[in-house]
């Protein structure tokens, strides 16, 4: 059975709407940052930190990350809506691990979810149901 994580743009988040291109741009920024870290260390860290290629789907509602080696298969991402604690519909990023996903996919998806949530100052509901708040709360 597939598992999902949600990165919700709640009150206090940097952005209040999401597009497919915005999500892709954030992932590309992550890949660029890890490549720079690898240059400083003298190691090809970019491939280890982001072992995927970004592949488009046919309907442009979502995209998937396709693994470049045998330890990684697929992660699916796309904008969606979710219900917040107050019952309101809020924009979110849904991250799906399909049935054929590996343990490496789940670990990397957790890492990418944390990065996306932190960069968007959002609320993250992880695959295990726990919630992490990266947004400023009062």
From TrEMBL:
Alphabetized InterPro entries for the sequence: DUF1885, Rbstp2229-like_sf
Q: Name one Pfam family in it.
A: DUF1885
Q: Which domain of life is it from?
A: Bacteria
Gene3D superfamilies assigned? Rbstp2229 like protein, Rbstp2229 protein
Task: Kindly provide the name given to this protein in its UniProt entry.
Answer: DUF1885 family protein
């Amino acid at each position: 059975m597939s598992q999902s994580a949600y990165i919700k743009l709640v009150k206090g988040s940097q952005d209040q709407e999401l597009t497919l291109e915005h999500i892709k741009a954030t992932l590309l920024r992550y890949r660029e940052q890890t490549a720079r870290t690898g240059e400083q260390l003298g190691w090809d860290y970019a491939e280890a930190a982001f072992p995927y290629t970004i592949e488009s789907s046919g309907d442009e509602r979502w995209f998937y990350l396709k693994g470049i080696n045998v330890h990684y298969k697929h992660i699916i991402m796309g904008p969606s809506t979710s219900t917040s604690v107050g019952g309101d519909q809020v924009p979110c990023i849904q991250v799906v691990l399909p049935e054929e996903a590996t343990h490496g996919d789940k670990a990397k998806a957790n890492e990418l979810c944390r990065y996306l949530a932190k960069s968007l100052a959002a609320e993250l509901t992880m695959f295990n149901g726990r919630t992490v708040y990266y947004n400023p709360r009062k």
